[in-house]
Amino acid sequence: xxxxxxxxxxxxxxxxxxxxxxxxxxxxxxxxxxxxxxxxxxxxxxxxxxxxxxxxxxxxxxxxxxxxxxxxxxxxxxxxxxxxxxxxxxxxxxxxxxxxxxxxxxxxxxxxxxxxxxxxxxxxxxxxxxxxxxxxxxxxxxxxxxxxxxxxxxxxxxxxxxxxxxxxxxxxxxxxxxxxxxxxxxxxxxxxxxxxxxxxxxxxxxxxxxxxxxxxxxxxxxxxxxxxxxxxxxxxxxxxxxxxxxxxxxxx
Length: 252
What we know:
It is a single chain. By secondary structure, this protein is of the alpha+beta class. 40% of the residues lie in helices and 14% in strands. It has helices at 3-18, 49-60, 76-84, 104-115, 129-142, 171-182, 198-206, 226-237, 247-251, and strands at 40-44, 65-69, 91-94, 99-101, 162-166, 187-191, 213-216, 221-224. Strands 4-3-1-2-6-5-7-8 form an 8-stranded mixed β-sheet, with helices on both faces. A hairpin with a 4-residue loop joins strand 3 (91-94) and strand 4. Residues 241-252 have low confidence and may be disordered.
């Protein structure tokens, strides 16, 4: 790893420290509640401090979700406006209850009420929403806007969603999510916080419990190591070629 890689890790660790471990431990697991029949859907982007708050709660509630990146410049923003009526993130879609919500605090309250059981995700001590927003904004500022701007030029078609085994509080997962957001790649997030029974699934599939772990059904690739995953995503789906497709796709 070069100096740039070390610096990137340091700043990603700093962002995790600012959030004091949020999104690293499960408060309730799928073994303590019924798993949603339909996976939740979240329109968000990695650099958004309000989206981060929702993703942390989804991790702490051990809930998976389908991520629809809507970073600045994303063609998918038009889809969000058609769906919800305005361009604002985060936006949650829960087909299990026909619920659609903007506003991070409203989404968090809904997730806790619907999927939290007797335990609620969030800060251990009461933290005012304004202070939480400022703190999350600081974490975004540390990353200097990574994950906030889409680098593709046109909508992606014909791709199966990638799968990311993830823990929101992991600085290594953050680097991968930033790249997925910038490359406008829809993906299924399999959250595996500490205490999640889904960690056994990850170990069985990849051979060890380590995040991030990427599964790409479009190429059959599965891999650990954040830097390797980022290099792979840039090569396969980077925006340098026509239509935002990667070098290998362009050569086919």
